[in-house]
Write a structure and sequence with these properties.
The chain is 28% helix and 33% strand. With 827 residues, it is α/β, with parallel strands linked by helices. The strands form 8 sheets. Strands 1-2-3-4-5-6-7-10-11-12-13-14-15-16 form a 14-stranded antiparallel beta barrel. The longest helix has 26 residues.
């Protein structure tokens, strides 16, 4: 930081990098002078007259008013500048400038400008019209063209052609001039330096050099300075200083300038819809975050049928929200409102808990307010500085249980038989339809999994709440806790009402303002260029062929191989993506679809690093799609493994007979009806199916052995359909590292060679659902007609559908299935 300071000492006054048009008759037109800027810097509404390409970087609508008083020329100027960016790539701006004095007629200049581009490159153009009582001046109109290239966060290049058409009217002439600008940020985005060279190709001797500095002193306070000198014999050295004070939505600048001829004073005011990094007033912000709302996508029901309402996976969106909040210096506290966590198991609860701990590590005070909590919800809450409960809170903090519903007796009663070919004694998924009780293999698996997950839960709660494991277990034994009893047991710090909660927070975060609409992504981005990116490719829900879907009733989401493979290919081909994280939260599904995604991961790995991050569950086909990555991360409580396959087919002949239905079949081959849903398998069909399944299983474990660099016999020992916790999977070499999405992203960054202190952008390459109207442009219409709903299907009904297997009916379709035992839920 010494160089900018020395620069200010050596150059006492700095000039404006401001375009001044050359005219005949020594008079107008010219633009209203602006505070110190450069064609390579400008990215606000004033870009319309400096470099129209800069409008691409404006963001949300903003309005500038500039007033100039030039004593050297006895001139007064006023300017109004409005700019915005539309659809993330199209910039638009309009400016109105009024100038009078200096021995010239009063006139107004109106400029319309457009730009198109990205954070790395933008091209823009502007059209200016003049109006005045002077007829010759009124006939003038001019065109500007500009481009800006920001190949990195420390370099910005600009080229502007002013008055391209070189208009002439009477005595007034606007010569075509070119402006070349080079901007640099050698010390980070707080210091910007630029050199602008403006030249008239018809009069090179009249060219002008301008050196500009913009220095952010502290948050919300910036200094601008510049020095300018022309090459002509009569050119003057001029200088300018500027001081800018920003609050979030308003800003003001005072910029006096001087030359031999006299003083030029500029006053500027900014109003913007997007918050700027402003002066922090009081105790900063305390965000009130409803985690249940954050985790609700609202994409079920009719919206799912239409293929609408599907954006970034809500859990990934929530993790990004909390991660961005960590870096916000204006955020001093967070109140987490907890009323259950939709579709969050222990694995993802662990990730949310880690996110809360990182918030605290960054100095944010975190308060967890419990309205309704189960074990997973309380696991997240326990990481807060204080755990608070409302007087009537429902606290079902009572330990874990696993259950699976068995429909074998029901199937027998209605006359439906299920034919099964499977490989792996622990591949018990079909047993939900064929058995009346849990098999020994299923009992062994569930008990081992429960032991691991209970151990992780108890240890984590004891550590967070400074309790012994024995005290945590004693609390579980109460079943359903009242807030008062939870406080006695050390699970809750206090019972609060709205008034006492606000008082407590104001005492611990003095001067803070509360925000229920806090958005950590809203603040204006100051960095240049497009940051290097890490792509997140989600594999969420049952794995199927075709495109990803939400079923119309909202019971389940599927990860379609076509959608996921396309996302992986886009990420691998995108030059801005340095690494890929495949986020898997899937119990598996179709074997062929799983293999297609696995092959796409292997192909992507040839071009850039690929890391897999497992959520609550990444089992069977979910493990299959993960195993090709360079490194696999799993949470201690992740349900994974289940390496095995099966073929499941209903035989409805018995049901048909009960309903007096008769069916006759004519075939020309002995096994032509092998996959028919009417007749059960005979011995030949069963043998053929088993041969097929054995071959697929052999391929599965062979690929595991190759990807994980294990002996095939060793893989077979830990495969056979056995489900493992993330902790056990690591011990057996099935995963590499224990950690969540944040740790997987950090590993991807390291593998891509991105320094730890360099900001990166997490870009979700969505594989989300489509529907019957997807791609027909109906989203806006349907969005206007259909009301928003927090959850289209009541949770008890969703849970019943999952337990009955209604959310995975696609498993009855022909084909090899690599699937976790039906809807295993640990709660």
């Amino acid at each position: 930081m010494r160089t900018p300071g020395l620069f200010l000492v050596l150059v006492p006054a700095f000039a404006l990098a401001q375009t001044e048009t050359v005219t005949q008759a020594g008079g107008p037109p010219r633009d209203v002078a602006l505070p110190p800027t450069s064609a390579s810097f400008v990215d606000e509404a004033t870009a319309a007259i400096v470099n129209p390409a800069g409008l691409t970087f404006v963001g949300a609508p903003q309005l500038f008013y500039v007033h100039e008083q030039n004593s050297a020329r006895d001139l007064v100027g006023n300017g109004l500048y409005l700019g915005t960016t539309l659809f993330r790539s199209l910039g638009a701006g309009v400016s109105f400038e009024w100038l009078s004095g200096g021995g010239a007629p009063f006139y107004r200049k109106t400029t319309w400008a457009l730009s198109l581009g990205s954070p790395a490159f933008s091209l823009g153009g502007g059209w200016s019209l003049y109006s005045s009582g002077n007829e010759a001046l009124r006939r003038l109109s001019a065109f500007d063209v500009g481009l800006t290239a920001r190949p990195s966060d420390f370099l910005s290049l600009a080229l502007v052609a002013h008055d391209v058409n070189a208009p002439r009217s009477g005595d007034f002439f606007l010569p075509r001039t070119y402006q070349v600008a080079v901007g640099a940020r050698p010390f980070g985005d707080g210091t910007s330096l630029a050199l602008d060279w403006q030249v008239d190709p018809e009069a090179v001797g009249d060219s002008r050099l301008t050196l500009t500095l913009q220095q952010r002193l502290v948050r919300g306070l910036a200094l601008g300075a510049g020095v300018s000198r022309g090459f002509g014999l009569d050119s003057e050295l001029s200088g300018q200083l500027g001081l800018t004070v920003d609050t979030r939505f308003l800003g003001a600048t005072y910029a006096p300038g001087a030359s031999i001829a006299g003083m030029d004073q500029i006053f500027a005011v900014r109003a913007s819809a997007q918050p700027y990094p402003g002066v922090t007033v009081g105790g900063g912000t305390v965000a009130v975050v409803d985690l249940a709302s954050q985790l609700t996508s609202g994409g079920g029901g009719v919206l799912a049928l239409l293929g609408l309402g599907a954006g970034v996976d809500p859990f990934l969106r929530t993790l990004r929200y909390l991660e961005e909040a960590e870096r916000d210096p204006t955020l001093n506290g967070v109140v987490l409102k907890l009323e259950g966590l939709p579709d969050v198991g222990l694995g993802r609860a662990m990730e949310l808990r880690d996110a809360v701990q990182r918030l605290r590590a960054k100095g944010k005070k975190v308060f967890a307010l419990l309205l309704r909590a189960d074990d997973a919800t309380y696991l997240v809450a326990s990481a807060a500085d204080q755990v608070l409960a409302v007087p009537e809170a429902t606290l079902a903090i009572n330990g874990l249980a696993a259950s699976t519903m068995l429909l074998g007796g029901t199937m027998e009663a209605i006359g439906v038989k299920w034919d099964v070919a499977r490989q792996g004694v622990f591949k018990t998924a079909p047993e939900q339809l064929t058995r009346t009780d849990a098999s020994p293999a299923q009992r062994e698996t569930l008990n081992a999994l429960l032991d691991d997950q209970s151990r992780s839960l108890e240890t984590s709660l004891a550590e967070s709440r400074n309790l012994t494991v024995e005290k945590v277990r004693a609390a579980f034994a109460h079943g359903l806790l009242t807030p008062a009893r939870a406080k006695e047991l050390g699970l809750v710090d206090d019972i609060v009402t709205t008034e006492t909660l606000e008082k407590r927070i104001r005492e611990q975060v003095p001067g803070a303002r509360f925000s229920t609409t806090y958005d950590p992504f809203a603040e204006r981005r100051l960095r240049w260029g497009a940051p290097r990116r890490i792509a997140i490719v989600p594999v969420i829900g049952d794995i199927t062929g075709g495109r990803s879907q939400n079923d119309p009733l909202g019971f389940a989401q599927t990860a379609g191989a076509e959608s996921v493979v396309a996302a992986l290919e886009r990420a691998a081909e995108d030059p801005g993506v340095e690494a890929i994280v495949v986020r898997v939260d899937s119990p598996g599904g179709d074997g062929l679809a799983s293999d297609l995604i696995y092959r796409a991961v292997l192909d992507a790995k040839k071009r850039k690093p690929v890391v897999a991050s497992m959520g609550d569950v990444a089992a069977s086909g979910g493990y299959y799609v993960s195993m090709g990555a360079d490194e696999i991360f799993a949470l201690p409580t992740t349900v994974t493994g289940s390496i095995g396959v099966f073929l499941l087919k209903p035989a409805l002949e018995g049901l048909g007979k009960k309903l007096k239905v008769n069916r006759e079949t004519f075939s020309r081959a002995p096994l032509a009806t092998m996959l028919d849903a009417w007749e059960p398998w005979d011995a030949k069909a069963k043998a053929a199916a088993q041969t097929w399944i054995d071959a697929f299983y052999d391929d599965f474990i062979s690929e595991v052995a190759r990807s994980r660099k294990l002996e095939k016999a060793r893989v077979d020992e830990v495969a056979r359909g056995r489900v493992w916790s993330g902790l056990d999977a690591k011990e057996r070499g099935l995963v590499d590292t224990l950690g969540g999405l944040a740790q997987a992203v950090a590993a991807a960054r390291t593998r891509a060679g991105i320094p730890e202190d360099e900001p990166v952008e997490l870009s979700v390459f969505e594989t989300g659902p489509g529907g019957v109207l997807a791609g027909l442009g109906a989203a806006q219409l349907a969005g206007a007609l259909l009301p928003e709903t927090r959850d289209s299907i009541p949770e008890p009904l969703r849970q019943l559908a999952r337990e009955l297997g209604l959310s995975a009916l696609h498993l009855a379709e022909p084909g090899v299935k690599a699937m976790l035992p039906f809807r295993l839920e640990v709660r």
